[in-house]
Structure formats: structure tokens, C-alpha cells
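Two folds, back to back.
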Amino acid sequence: MRHLPARTTTGTRRRVLGALVTALLCAGGVASPAVASTAPDSVSPHLGNGLALTPPMGFNNWNSTGCSADFNETMVKGIADIFVDKGLKAAGYQYVNLDDCWAKPQRDADGKLVPDPVRFPNGIKAVADYVHSKGLKLGIYTSAGTKTCDSVGLPGALGHEYSDAQQFADWGVDYLKYDNCNNLGIDAVQRYKTMRDALAATGRPIVYSICEWGSNKPWEWAGDVGNLWRTTGDISDSWSSMLSILKQNLPLDAAAGPGHWNDPDMLEVGNGGMTDTEYRTHFSMWSIMASPLLIGTDLRKASAETYDIVTNKEVIAVDQDPLGKQGKVLSSEGGRWVVAKEMADGSRAVALFNESDSPQRVSTTASAVGLPEASGYTERDLWQHKTYNTAGSLSATVPAHGTVLLRVAQDPKWAAYPSAVESGISGSLLVQAGKASTLTTTVTDQGRTPALQAGASLSAPAGWGVKALSKATAASVPTGESLRTSWRLTPPAGAATGSYDLKLTSTYRSLTGERVTTELPVQAHVVVAPPSGSSYLSDLPAVSSSNGWGPVEKDTSNGETKAGDGSPITINGIVYAKGLGVHAPSAVEYYAGGACSNVSAQAGVDDETGIKGTVTFEIWADGTKVASTGVLTNVDFAHSISADVSGAQVVRLVVTDAGDGNDSDHADWADAKLSC
């Protein structure tokens, strides 16, 4: 699904059915293909073209430039140079892929595609030759419809599959992304098979990427059609979007393998809408899912931290493991995810992922991830680049939205490494300016050998008070035991509301004398007590917020791109002066402090979505769902939703996409109020 708010907020896709399909096909001079049989409800056979035996790695310009003027020949050649100069090629990246807007709006007199002479004055072949000269490969884009997804109306390949495929081959193209816009309602399986056959007929090896947004469950039929297939709608550069797509892709592990991969869309790492912690989670989880790794940020402007993330060779090795397994979900209770992936050397990659908004302990065991019983194991932290021994427990206190990625193996030489030590923190990280709160930290030995001369220290921003209330050192911490320390934490009286970085540092010495230091970053949130009486939520500071597209808006609808680009909140013709405008999937948290009794709102899909938009509204109190609207669409009047939140410290407003993707899911919490 190509969701392009800059072009239209109501979407650009329409499906025309029945007789209208036939009429349009005839008018456009496109031969109507036969209708394919229904796809089986199972994993399909494999394409077997010998390509993409590990998930493709490369770059695609769409998430950073879209169809802006910045997308041109100079940029593409510059990206190829960067691949070589910045170590991306050495890390395994090889495809430099062009997305939409590379072509002129009209074909030539012979029906051939014509590259945009302004963007690509020397043509696509010249670009391919340059990319190939760097030892890299070139990818290109079109759609399995009459036009591509851009609103200008660039030519699609429907009815021109063999001609277009031959042009791509003649230009030296190595990878085709085949989108799904303007498809006239023609059977997806048939359309994508036709291009498969057209690519094969060229005789050139071209990786075939099916981009039909998961609409027709391609994991059930595309294994012998393409090398990879999108499983979801488009990703956006937000935590909620990435998380929603992750959850949709994780259950599809049975369909993935060498030459046939689930594709949860391109990477957003470095585009600025998430924190570095969230971007490391994004990269970790895409890797453990054996997903294609297509960088979507403008590498000419990327930060050192972005390069550190996307060139982490130990994480990339998880993605590129030749066994080709997608990780399996072992548990996910309370947003504490354990995902394990079998590796070709018999080890296991293990992701300990914390979906929640506060630090959580996530744990499993070597046995649970599929390793045989042994006297000891080694665990390699793929972000710390350090190896430890463990008795079999695999656990970590994971920061909010963070992931600890381990590679665990049965290893007779486990004793050569220091014990794995888990640093933990408990207690409320919601604090008020000038008021003391109490936290407890733990340093727990998970290894086969004791942690000697152990210590803990807690650091906070300048001006904050931090005092240990119990011992913070121990001569020895045996296997399975902990050094536990209480701390008094006091923000300064003038501290503004918002998030502040804390850090728990644990130190210890191994039996071999190695000194080990580990750090656990956490965030404290300075909050204010809610006022007495009834208050509009749009007038109160949120503790946190996430949104599918654009920011959460106060007193306007969601305009999808930047703050302040919305319109008056309007649900079925009724305009509301107050409220929150969001885009599914969305979550907004407010501090209640145990002093509030009720949350209420008029909930509905904003009129600006036209006929689109399908969502559910939910109210949560301290991790418990206390109210839900059920599924609402654009035709529904505003739904009154209210919930008792007595005693809750945090109230959370959630909007989901109702399970059908988030195209045009503009949701309004009109007249949203908190009563305290």
C-alpha cells in the first residue's frame, strides 16, 4: 500500500469491479487476463530462480525523498558511492533501488517506457552501468496496474509486462519492485504471475519483489511467483507504525526461506521519527524475521548513529544466515516478547523485545529456544559486542521500546567468559518536580561463575538528587543471586515536564580477573498532578504519544505529515472545537496519579477520509483495557465512550486499525475529557 499524504489524504486507490472492469480494460487497450483460481490456504511452492537466497539488502529512496526533485541520477550515483565509501557494500548491501517517479508520464510511440529526462538525462542504462561499476546492483519500480501510485499518473505495466520486462533487462536492471496501484480490480495472482513469466522470458536474473500490500495473503500463494512479497501496508517513520507492521509479519514465519521472503517493508532507521533505541529495535526485529534490509534514509545526510545501526555486522549476520529461518515468537505476554531464530551453525538468535513504555524484565531459557541441555552456554550481546557465560537463563531488563539481541550457543569453553549479569530497575519512573521517589536496582548473576566486587551506580541529569538508601556494592554475587539497592531520586523543583535520561551502571570482576561494566539506560518522566474537576485532554500534557502518520494533533484532525496541518475535527458532519486528532495505530498516555475517576470522549473517524477509515477506540488504565468502541467506520456517527479509571496512575488512549491496515484511518477523540 503506497500511502501518500502529500498527494491526497483520502488515498489514491480505487478498485473497479464487474462490468466496469471490462469497460475500462477495453477503453485502455489492455487485454483482460483470465481469472486465476483461488489461492490455497497454505504455504506455496518456491519460485526456484536461484535468486535472493538470503534476504535482499540495499537502499530504496522512497522513504526519504518520495517523488521530490531531489530524486535524480546524481542522487542515485551518490548513493552507490556511499555504499562503497561508508562500508555498506562491505556489510552486505548491494541493491540501489529506484522507486516511483523515474519515468515520463507517457510512453513513446512504440509503447516503450521513457525515463524522465530531467531526473535521468542519461537514461536508466547509464545509471545501471555506473552502479554495476561499483560492484553493486540496480533496482527499479513499476506497478501491476495501468498507472503507478504517484498522482501524476506514470505508466504502469498492466498489459505491457513483456515489453517492460525486456526494457528493464536491456537496461541492466537486477531487481524489480512491482506495486499494486490502479489495478482495475483484476485478480492479483494472475497479474503477478504474468510479470513473473515476463521477467523469466528476458533471460536476465532479476529479483522479483511483489508489493501488493498483503491484501491477498501472498504468503499463501507467492512462493513460486516472487522472491519476496510485502505482508502489510506501507510503513511510516513512527513507533506505532513499525510496531503494527512487526506484529502482522511475525506470525508468518512458515512462509519464509531461501529465495522466498516475507517483506514487512523498508527500513525507517535514521529518518528522525523514532529514537535510536526504537531504531535498534526496528533493525533487530527485521533481522530476526529474516526480512529484506532496504535502507530508507538519505544516506548523504545520515548520522554516525544511523550508520552504526545499519552496518552492525553481527545483527546483519542474523538476517543473512544461510539456513533462512524466520524467527518464531515464543512468548509475548504483557508486551514482553521473546523471538528465537535457528541458525545454520546450531546456535540461536534470541530477541528480548519490550513493547511497553517502561523498562521490563524479559526472560527465557536456552532450553526454551531449542538448545540441548549443557553444563553452560555462551551468549553474545550483538549490540554490546560482548560474550558472557550463562547457566541457561537468558534474561534482561529491557528499556522501553528496546530490544536485547543475543546469539546463544552450547559451548564447552563457556568458562573463559565472564558471567552474564542482568541489571534491573523497579519502581515508578513517573516523578513530580521537587518531590522524592524511590527506585530499586538489582545486579543479578545469571552465569555459571560468581560476579566478584560487584557494584551499582545510578546517574541522573545535573540538578537531580540521587542517593543510595542501602548498600550498592558486594564482594561476591553468586549464581542466581542479586545485589539489591534502594535509591531516592528527586528532580529539581523547576524541572519541566518531559522525559529525562537516567543510567544504571553495573560493574563486577570475573574469576579470570576481567573487569566488566554494563549500562542500562532508562527514562524518567516529570509529570504534573492533573487538575481537579473536568479537563479537556488536549489542554493537558501527555506523558507519551505515538501515531501511525504525523503527530497527534490537539483540537484538529490529523493531517498526516507535520504538526498543525489538520482541519477542524468533524465526525459525520458535526464539528468539535476540542479533542485529539490521531491516525491509527495510535496511543496517547496521560498521568492520572491515582486521583482521577473517569475518561470520556466522542469517538469517530474524521470526515476528511471520505469513504475510508476503519478503526477501534480503546481506553486503558494501568495496562488494563477498560473500554472499547468496537469497529467504527466513516459512516458511523460519533460513539460515546467512557471508562472508570479510579486509582489508575496512567490512562492510555489507543486507536487500532481494526485489523485491515491503516489506510486513511484518521481517528478523532472529540471532546475528550479527564475527570479528577
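---
second:
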Amino acid sequence: MPTTQATPAASGPGSPETGVFTHRQILTILSGLVLGMFLAALDQTIVSTAVRTIADDLQGYSVLAWVTTAYLVTSTITTPLYGKLSDLHGRKPFFMLAITIFVVGSMLCGIATSMYELAAFRAVQGVGAGGLMSMALAIIGDIVPPRERARYQGYFLAVFATASVLGPVLGGVLAGQPSLLGVTGWRWVFYLNVPLGVLALLVVWRVLNLPVHHREAKVDWWGATLLSVGVVPLLVVAEQGRTWGWSSPAALCCYVVGVLGVAAFVLAEVRMGDEALIPLRFFRNRLFSLCIAVSVIAGAGMFGGISLIPQYLQVVKGSSPTLAGYQVLPMVGAMMLASIVSGQLISRTGRYKIFPLVGTALMSAGMFALHLVRADTPLWLTMTMMATFGLGLGCMMQPLTLAIQNAMPPRDMGVSTSAATFFRQIGATLGVAVFLSLLFSQLTPATSAALTTASTDPGFRSVVQAAAQGADPAQAHLAQGMAAGDPAVAGAALVDTSFIQRLDPVLAEPFKVGFSAAMDHVFLAVSALMIVGFVLVWFVKEVPLRTMSGLAAQQAERDAAAAAPQSGSSTA
């Protein structure tokens, strides 16, 4: 018999004890959730804008994928654990733990002295991030019925929109500062999380008071361990395969360990049954399985696109980090508009399947259009393509999570929500690793081809000869390499791209053309992936949305279970 620890309140409508909350009570709880979500949302956007400056300063552009992948790996692995533990022991302590770890990781990132150190500290930060988004979404599922959730979606949209607008701008401003209060500007990208995190902790501690019904169950530590053993090697080889060689001994070792780890994880989950980290009975639900598959694809496409677009703007268009932050605003605005419209329509009609269909189609169209972008494409046209991608993202964000929460039992709210977040993060991690690896594998040959084409132009050759004798030693050294046909010149951007903006425009053009051509392959790959997502969404069956919150539904189940024995004894 589970023991119950609930917040003191009288039973009745508008009482947390019954799982029914008034509008005011929901807003009070939301004030704590939005701060935690703001940390996660701001971090994703602020770092993506500043990361090129960070990589150049720490001399490790080719190691860039590790910084992103390390964060995504740890946030992915810990997400299901947060969901399971919070289902058993309540959301509040684990939400606060996630915020604390995130703040500590942010402080460590701020003192990093190399890209490898930064990657390690981002991994710590990711352990906290794994609980921020999933816990907030699970709590919303606990207190707001699916049919009414769009009523409160505006508050979350305001958070995401604010983070999406402020993140790139703040990332650009801070990364563009040589020093701020005696500290290198880009380090404030991470230090900014500290006061925000402390504020979030205080607010959550004060307002997040939900009834807690402890359930006696084993924690699936073996499942968590085996999941790490299976997932990490596969993600590592996805990032390092281009360097090692996809059939090298190190890559083969990762394949073997990863496959064995995943197989052992599945066996462990079968043995644990309902107490598993991710119960396999979930996958017998066809809607859950299809939505999870689409979530993986959407995660790969979303993070692949968001992480690469600012780099295109900075490297090819020569935008500063701050300006690049402003230039992605059309995508952000379109995402916000689509989210608001789709949320309101879902609330009024109860229909949600159409929105992932439209979303995957628009994301694919936007990426295909970006695939056609060249170094000399007008910026307004590029922004239009980004806006198309943003519209697709806005249609995809809410409906998939809503469908999963609505399809699964309310008592599994934490596990089902964290499972959805987990698989979306799996897609994001693989997407970023694979797409960045694809970019880097194409960058050198694309730049080499652009240099070869440029060398046939007499005007380009004359500029190279003049630069080789010029007063700028760095430009002279590069021009001498161009004149000599040194193949290492084409790969210079793998280490540091900042030199491109300091070159004579004529000398810089082949590098910009090469970078743009390399990104074309990535955008085309994302577009093809989203077509697969579009096809899968067609097979999703639309289930009517419930009108009870997760906590209210669980309370109703407990009341029914308690009434059953009494009914039986009365009959006897």
C-alpha cells in the first residue's frame, strides 16, 4: 500500500489534494517551472551563437562537436532517470536537484581552458539539463488536462520566445566582448546561468507544492548503467568516425560495445517489468511508438538546423555573433507564431495530428531551400527560408508531447514524458554529431575545389601574389600556401574560422564558397530526414484528448480502487 504525503489543503475543487487546480494555483506553480525551463532554453540558444568564438579562442574548431555532443549525451542519459524517480518520490526534489547540478556545471564551463575541458564541464551541465525540461513538462501534465493545456501554452511560448530572442543576442554580445569585468566575454555565456539558477531554486522551493504519493518500487540502476554503456559508444563513433575511419578498430570497438550495451539494456528492462527505467510495455502502444520515432527524427532535424544556421551566418556572411543573433529572429518569430496558432486550434478543436504533418513538411521544405543557398545568396532570401523552417518547428513542438502524455496512463506521466524527451534528445545528439561530422568531412574537399576554381582567375592569382609579399604575416603565409598549392590551406578552417574575416575579400571568397558548399550537403540530409518523419506521422492514430489532469486522473483511480472492496463487501 503506497504511503501518501500531500500538501496540506482541504479536499475539494481547486485543492491540490484532489488533483484539481484553479487558474491562480496553476499560474503560481508555472512561475517556478518557467524559470527552470528558461535556464534550459536560454542555454541552448546562447551557446549555439557563441560557440564559434569559443572554439576559435580555445583553438579547437575541429573539436567543436565534442562540446555539443557531451552536453547532449549526459542530458539524454539522465532524462529517464529523473522521470522514474519523480514518479516514485515526487517532482520537486528532483527538479531542484537538476537546477543545482546545472548551475554547478555552468560555473565549471566558465573556467575551462581548453575545448576538451569545456566538453567535460558541459557534460556535467548536461546532467542537470536532463531534468529541467522533462520535469517541467511532466508537472504540467500533472496539473493541466491535455485539452486545456493550450490555454497555458502562451506562458511557455513567452519563455521560449524570450530565450530564443535573448539567447542569440546575449551570446553574440558577450562573445563579442574581449573582456567584461576582467573576464573573457564568452565566459559570461555560462556565468549568466548562476544568478538565474539561484533565483529559480528559490522560486521552485517556495511555490512548487504538489501532493506526493510515494510508490514502493525498485530503482532500475542496472538499466541506467547499461543504457549508458550502450548509448555513449555509439554517439562517440558518430562524432569521431570521420577522424578514425568508419571501419577502424576504434570504431568497430564502439559498434560492438554499443550494440551489446543496448541489447543488455533491453534484457534488463524485460526483467524489471513495470519497474524498468523505460517499461517496454510502452512500445506495445502503437501511437507511443510512432510518436517516439517522429520525435527522434524531429530532434535530429531541429538541433541539426539550429546549430548550423548561426555558423553559416558568421562564417559565410561575415556576421558578428551579435548580428547573427538578430538575423535568426525570423526563424524564432515564425516558430512562436506557429506554436500560438497550433496551440489555440488544438484547444478549440481537440485535433492535433494535422500539426505534426504540416510541421514536418515545412521543416523539410525549409531545409531543402537552405540547401540551395550559396555564399552570395541575398540575406533576405536566406531569412525567408529560416522562417519556413521555424514555422515547421512551431507546429511540431507541442503536439507530439501532448499525444504521448494523452495516450499513456496518468501514473506513468513522469516516465512517459521523460521517455519522449529522451528519444528526442537521442535524435538531437545523433543529429548534431552526424551532421557536424558530415560538415567537417565535406569542408576540406569543398574548399579545395573552390580554391582550384579560383586559381584559374588571373585576378585572383594577382591578389594572391600581392598578399604573399604583403605586410600582414598571417595573410602572407596563407597566400604563399595558396600559390604553392599546399593542400593544408584548404583544411585551415577546421581549426579556426576567424581568419576568414581578416583576409582580403578576394582571398576569403573561396573559403566562404567552400563552407557554403559543405553546408549544402548537411541541409539536404536534414530535408530528406524530415520527409521520413512526414511519412511516419501519417500512420499516427489521433486519440481524443482527456479532460482531466494527470493528478486528478490518478486520484480518481485511487478512489475507484478504494471503493471497489467496499462495494464487494456490501454485495456480500
